[in-house]
């Protein structure tokens, strides 16, 4: 297309045949610009951000990439519809998700990593009954013991990056932290409620 024609509204476009060089006019009432199908993500090569064979970035419903704290929106991400309206929706979703992520990071830093108390970092599955029973039992034990330990629960379904950071393979698992440093852990329980006494010894001494 070489030119959009019309006085107050779009009336036609002038198009050029790239093979013959000839031009012609095509009557129309609107124009949608299409910039092509090649994503501008080449600069992300070797960055660690996952891309498909064409260079598009896969994300989840929160626009999160495989790299923690990095979001992708618009026409460069894997999606069905590539238009301004869908890109704007992507941006709104990513903005809210990023804000909540920052709040969670700040909360984790202040209440877990910088805590003066021992923290029992419990990794569990909120959709698994055994995990939920274990969480309840651990909280009851903590209250009954009258210690100053804190319990911070991490749902593996929504905090996979945190689970990877602490190399969690089996749930439920507890990582005992003191001032951000791991001092012990218990994992690989055959029965989810076994070992509470061991947790008591590990975390409450």
Structural commentary:
The chain is an alpha+beta fold. It has 3 domains: 1-31, no CATH class; 42-109, 3-Layer(bba) Sandwich (FAD/NAD(P)-binding domain), CATH 3.50.50; 115-203, Glutaredoxin (3-Layer(aba) Sandwich), CATH 3.40.30.10. The chain is built from 4 helices and 7 strands. The strands form 2 sheets. A 4-stranded mixed sheet has the order 5-4-6-7. Strands 1-2-3 form a 3-stranded antiparallel sheet, with no helix packed on it. β2 (12-16) and β3 form a beta hairpin. It is elongated and about 85 Å long. It starts with a strand and ends with a helix. The mean pLDDT is 85.
Tag the structure with descriptive keywords.
30% helix; 205 residues; 3 domains; Glutaredoxin; 4-stranded mixed β-sheet; FAD/NAD(P)-binding domain; 3-stranded antiparallel β-sheet; alpha+beta; elongated
